Amino acid sequence: MKLGEVFPNETVNTTQGELSLHDYWGDGWGVFFTHPADYTPVCTTELSMVQKMVPEFTKRNVKMIALSCNSVKDHAGWCDDIKAFGKLSEVSYPIIEDPTRDLAVKFGMLDPDEKDAAGLPLTARAVFIVGPDKKLKLSILYPATTGRNFDELLRVVDSLQLTAYKKVATPANWQAGGDCMVLPSVKGEEAATLFPKMRIEEVPSGKQYMRFTPDPSQ
Fold first, then answer.
1. Average pLDDT of the residues in 124-130
2. Active-site residue 102, yes or no?
3. Active site residue 38
4. Which residues contact 23 (CB under 8 A, 6 or more apart)?
5. Could you say which of 38, 43, 69, 79 is catalytic?
6. Per annotation, catalytic residue among 80, 102, 133, 151
7. pTM as predicted
8. Which of 35, 121, 117 has its CA nearest to residue 75?
9. Which of 37, 108, 110, 212 could be joined to 121 by an S-S link, Cβ 3.0–4.6 Å?
10. Among residues 133, 134, 131, 176, which one has the least CA distance to residue 152?
11. Among 120, 128, 127, 123, which Cα is nearest to 144's?
């Protein structure tokens, strides 16, 4: 999958029944995240954390969906462990079954360095963020041994949603509400009109490209 490509509209079996990805996400944003296997320690911490953060993603009009290379029946039992570990009342987002690993192969999500008990490659920890236009906006691939930082995914969603509609970019370590950078394509009078509080940081080259502005969504 390349950035800007339409994310495949797969019809999948999940803990919430059969659904198509595009219909599930509707006119909002989607996060598709994958896991090596059920009943594994790092995955259990991740799915527990996602459930705790569902309200934050919901506020941003983002729907979560997970995939693990086991059956729906296995997922149902595993959800009991996830709820117990996280002291949760539910796992409210669907988990896709992929016991044949067809989807894992299709999306290039196998980790050749980590094997399961049968000697097969584990599914890597992939994250795909999909926009309302159903196009891929971001992808990250973690090895099976490294758990994800879902606070960082929230930060990325904030940046993607802001920069989709405003002519800005977000600098290193940006957080929602922080100063943004005016896109190089925005010139002269347009920049002054759109960003009246723009400031320019001087650099030795004399080139005035370090242009900052308060978060235009605030």
1. 89
2. no
3. no
4. none
5. 43
6. 133
7. 0.91
8. 35
9. 110
10. 176
11. 123
